[in-house]
Amino acid sequence: WLKFCAKPKGRQYSMVAPGGRQSSSPTRRLRSAMLRTGGCFPLSFCLALVGCGAGSGNVPASMRGDDSIMSQKAHGTCPNPPMNPLRWGASWSEADRICCFNRHWAEYSGYWETTTFLQEVNAGSGEVTFYDSVTGKPLFVAPRGRSFDDFVQESLAHGWPSFRDAETVAANVRVLGNGEAVSAEGTHLGHNLPDGKGNRYCINIVSVAGQEPQTGS
Predict the structure, then answer these.
(1) Model's pTM, two decimal places?
(2) Considering the domain boundaries, does residue 185 fall inside one?
């Protein structure tokens, strides 16, 4: 099961098999193509090349959306820029780029580990609410239906925070036909990459690092 790793601006996508080994021939073909072109490919291209599906087919009907959600607004696809500062020391500039001016790219694999999330949150924290970095609305609540360690281990294995259906705030999350996960207001969040356990929402931490709303706000 491959991890799809989007590197920072100016770097290439890479694809790493579990344990850090280079994966089989599709990966080598992708790496070769990138070296020939000197460019980067979006996640959707990587998924198509290796035959892994992203989509909204099994997403609850209430969470399915269409491209009109991502129409141009006051700030890219967002109604306004991300809040500043963000939780866990997440990069504001990266959040601005990924949340509001992007449909395909991601923070680099493992970026979430460089934030203070794992220092501030632990098994004793209970359920943690992840808020939209732009609107402040709740998007995910985890862990639910599993332990904190299970949530962390799955996220570490894939390179990005990974949420399940039970952990989504369905009123505020939408999944488009190509698997792109967005907020109902147009924040790019990541992608739905289903596996044998069901839907897995692979999410950029910079997209869900909004500050907890103040009581009464």
Answers:
(1) 0.78
(2) yes
